């Protein structure tokens, strides 16, 4: 569980500045991408299609795969948007049960939140991201390439300025990650446009 792509993405997003809604979208995209990389999901004319590959053995991924078999075919973007909050909550439940998350309290308003039980998980996720951006491409495996590409597409863990700086490298990493990355980028752009439209409508005279 701790080595799954959604778990690695979750620890990468463990930052007070990260929006929970953005984290949910990133984790959902990471779970979908994990299934693609494992051979359980493939692209069929722009839609996600489950394959006949054996279950992964990961409860979160296999539950997601079962759901996909029920709702397929679905566009990649629709797949990312549907059930993203449930996927995030399921992941947190499993990470907590594994002792990788524990209950903490925010300094402001003293709200109870889940935090990594071991901060090294967060450091490892960021180290993986840096390696994906700087190491020779031949030394970057597909899951790590996907982690970086998904983080950049979601805006979580990678600043826009950093993404622009490494645009060529990220384009190469995206080729190793699969169809969920462009779908994630479109979903994020759609949410951003909706927020801007809502703000403009509320503040316009």
Q: Give the strand order, joined by hyphens, for the main sheet.
A: 1-2-3
Helix fraction bin: 55-70%
Average pLDDT, rounded to a whole number, is: 89
CATH fold call: yeast vps74-n-term truncation variant fold
- SSE pattern, N- to C-terminal: HHEEHEHHEEHHHHH
Task: Give a written overview of the molecule.
β4 (101-105) and β5 (112-116) form a beta hairpin. The model has no long low-confidence stretch (mean pLDDT 89). It is globular and about 50 Å long. The chain has 205 residues and is mainly alpha-helical. The strands form two sheets. It has a three-stranded antiparallel sheet. A two-stranded antiparallel sheet has the order 4-5. It has ten helices and five strands. The protein has one domain (5-90, 118-192): yeast vps74-n-term truncation variant domain like (yeast vps74-n-term truncation variant fold, Orthogonal Bundle). 62% of the residues lie in helices and 10% in strands.
